[in-house]
Amino acid sequence: MDSETERPGSRVRPLDAVERRVLGVLIEKGKTTPEAYPLSLNAIITGCNQKNNRDPLMTVDEDQVGQAIETLRAAGVVAEIYGSGRVPRYRHYGYEWFGGIEKEDLSILAELLLRGEQSEGDLRGRASRMDPIPDLQILRTRLDGLAERGLIIWLSPPGRGRVLTHGLLPEEKLEKVRAKLGVAGQSFPAGASEPVPAATGGVNDDEADDDIDAGTVTVPRPAASVAAPPSAPSIALAALVEKIATLEGEVAALRSRLDALESALGN
Predict the structure, then answer these.
(1) Average pLDDT over residues 87-104
(2) 198 falls within a domain
(3) Share of the chain above pLDDT 70, in %
(4) Residues 9, 70: one domain?
(5) What is the structure's pLDDT at 144?
């Protein structure tokens, strides 16, 4: 039987870049490769440095990951456990630490921790590889609940292509993200609105050195209070985009399982 060395109990706090990556990896692997979870230190390092579903790419070593694990343990969100072997393994207490959230909520937060700020559409496809999120309306319901808890932060006004990030960034880092997006000093409500077009740059919240190198997101205001009904081609295009996002999520899940298998064989 596993013996756990500590229990959760600390409050949510901002996390640095390596802490965010480690926690994201633990949540992701616990959902996508439960047979290999809890994770060894080597498996966590491999997950932090893997090339798919990570933005930015990182190269972290044992000392960096070990330090992040210790600070996450002190915060009450990670625990060291022992099973039948002598190698310590690590698990997360994300559900408890974040205040009793649902499984889809934890998948959403994990994707934001692993890839940084992104649009709703991209987030839905990526989070669905861990827990299915059938459509954007369901995603938005979950995001509204997370926003009320301060666990996600909107970085652009309501509308199509809206950009968001998680609420675990240090304040100075969050201000850098807002400045790069051209919304410095602004905050946005969680409620829905008429769809508006938006262009998003390839921005990241998880730069290891906390620098951001990306384009500015411009979100125009809706021109009228009532949106025109979509044409048949636009409906077909939207369905195709949804299909592609779903396929991307399935491919990412397969890659994640392959990474875990390679890590297990390497141990």
Answers:
(1) 96
(2) yes
(3) 67
(4) yes
(5) 95
pTM: 0.72
Question: Could you read off the pLDDT of 179-203 as tens digits, one per residue?
Answer: 999 998 888 887 654 443 433 444 4
The residues, ordered by sequence, that sit 6+ positions from 29 with a Cβ below 8 Å of its Cβ are: 36, 37, 39, 43, 47, 256, 260
Classify residue 181: in a domain, yes or no: yes
Adjacent-strand bridge partners of 91: 79
Query: Residue 81's beta-bridge partner residues?
Result: 4, 89
C-alpha span between 133 and 31 (Å, rounded): 14
Q: Comparing C-alpha atoms, which of 16, 25, 31 is closest to residue 50?
A: 25
Q: How far apart are CA 93 and CA 96, in angstroms?
A: 6
3-class secondary structure, 104: helix
The answer to the question of residue 171 being in a domain is: yes
Name which of 36, 44, 37 is nearest 61 in CA terms. 44
Report the pLDDT value the prediction gives residue 224, as an integer from 0 to 100.
Answer: 37
Cα separation, 109 vs 151, whole angstroms: 8
Range of the domain at 35: 3-99+251-266
Contact 37/91 with Cβ under 8 angstroms? yes
Domain identity same for 81 and 165: no
Dihedral sign (CA 187, 171, 168, 4): negative
Distance of alpha carbon 118 from alpha carbon 155, whole angstroms: 9
d(CA 177, CA 160) in angstroms, rounded, equals: 20
Residue 80 backbone phi and psi in degrees, to 5:
-95, 130
> Hey, what are 244's tokens?
């592609």
Q: Is the pLDDT of residue 136 over 70?
A: yes
